Amino acid sequence: MIEGIFFDISGVLLDGAELLPNADKAINYIEEKNLPYRLITNTSQQPRSKIVKQLQDAGINILEEHVYTAPLAAKDYVLSHNLRPYCLIHRGLKSEFSDVVQNDPNAVIIGDAADDFNYANLNHAFRLCLEGAPLIAIGHNKYFKKSGDFFMDAGPFVEAIEYACDIEAVITGKPSVDFFSQVLASIQIKAEQVALIGDDIYGDIQGAINAGLESRLVRTGKYRDGDENKTKPKAIVVNDVLAAVEDLL
Amino acid sequence: MIEGIFFDISGVLLDGAELLPNADKAINYIEEKNLPYRLITNTSQQPRSKIVKQLQDAGINILEEHVYTAPLAAKDYVLSHNLRPYCLIHRGLKSEFSDVVQNDPNAVIIGDAADDFNYANLNHAFRLCLEGAPLIAIGHNKYFKKSGDFFMDAGPFVEAIEYACDIEAVITGKPSVDFFSQVLASIQIKAEQVALIGDDIYGDIQGAINAGLESRLVRTGKYRDGDENKTKPKAIVVNDVLAAVEDLL
Fold this sequence. Notes:
2 copies of one chain form a homodimer.
Chain A: E1 4-7, E2 14-15, E3 18-19, H1 23-32, E4 37-41, H2 48-58, E5 67-69, H3 70-80, E6 85-88, E7 107-110, H4 119-130, E8 135-138, E9 143-146, E10 149-152, H5 154-165, E11 170-172, H6 177-187, E12 194-198, H7 201-211, E13 214-218, E14 237-238, H8 241-248
Parallel strand pairs in A: 1-4, 1-12, 4-5, 6-7, 7-8, 8-11, 12-13, 13-14
Antiparallel strand pairs in A: 2-3, 9-10
């Protein structure tokens, strides 16, 4: 019996800034059923306030409290550990960290930095970690799809620095079980009564499986034929987010 | 009984273009003993011809046949497999591949591309591999030291693309056992009678151990305190390349 739903955003509700077909209907449907839900995302190109505005502009009327982001989890981590991070993150996200001390860094936060993933910046992060700075990763996704093209996400760059320095990153956001636990706590429903709907077989579906959630893989976003066979048990795949909601309830 | 010696170049014989202390004496010593030797390197910033000239300019008088490079092993691989590589390699190395067909690529060669490791180039390599192109790596080193600074080597970027695409790269150069076998064949001496002298605990020493060679770790180059404890069995560490040669013979 599903009593709460987590939605991934990019590739499930939105394609870039555009609404994906039936995404508004899916949210309306569970709003009408009065079911608790959260939109959880590793998207690290903009602060939560902008994500909420983008969803509202696209026709999905949600509040800030409905949205959990991996960057906010990373921010919580450095604040609670008194760390001064070098932030190798997307320019659009910098404002989310404007109130965090960043001079004389003793930690590295790495997110989807896009064009700022260059050799100079990566070496800077690598040298800090080689000297012992902890590496905090905003998500561990392999890649994402945007306007028809595939792009490397933060995950591969996290792997690169982990390998270079023989360290293990603290992963915030999906697929971290800690992150799922945090979001579950906010709606006070047990894992097995919550389902996640996502387009990323690793970050979303494998993450949900590891955290004990139900899940549905959608054929939108970054989905590629055969992705459903990459998890154990195999993912249940449906056409889009509305089909997922209908299948679950 | 050691009957042949392999030398790493960068950090063992040279620091950048400069001769490291006693490096010329070490080579002269084994030349006088008439012992077969090879200089083997993953350095992928220049063609073999320039490496040889650089060594000669620094005062080490060797011939092209003494030098085995990872880029040449990668080139052999794509030629023997009829592949057309996209070469994400250092600008200084491009001339080594000038006679290899590279249009409409169906493979990726990745080396220490330095500043050409940018998001656009990495995404290009990633997309080819996502579509099934094999990834051929020039070495798998974690990092190198140059003029007092540490720099990420090709290895971390190989890891990044392997993780992004769920593939495994073909590694040419150290620490590939195939590469060591190839160099051993050229001097016709058994692995257990050959020793490798290197400054990289992974690429050199662990590689030598895996291939059945003796080895000595030098405290020059990228050596960092405690590196010798990172292999099983522990590496034997000496001050420099001359001490290594004297210790071995």
